[in-house]
Here is the input.
Amino acid sequence: MTLLNILSALAENEVYLDSIEGKLKQLSAAGQEFSNSLLNSDLVKLGVDAGTNILSILTQIMDALGGIPAIAATAAAALSFKNVGWPKMTGDMNMPNYYKNAA
Here is the structure.
């Protein structure tokens, strides 16, 4: 390659880099670099490890208790013994019946 060809290629590259498409490619490359550095950070790895450990603990709890139906039944039984039900939670709402006088 001659010096003239190299200079011509550099000039064409500068025109491309100054175009909208060139600017978008530069932005995309910067975004990919940021994403790669973020995913390689220890903070993200720590968060993923913590989430994995929490899910593992919850799985062990669910296996020990027999799943969601058993937990829901236990919670319902506990609330019924404390006299906490739908009327207590909603303030014993008496909704008007607009259809009484319709006949």
The radius of gyration is 33 Å. Helices lie at 3-18, 20-39, 42-65, 68-81, 86-90. Residues 42-65 form the longest helix (24 residues). Residues 42-89 form one domain.
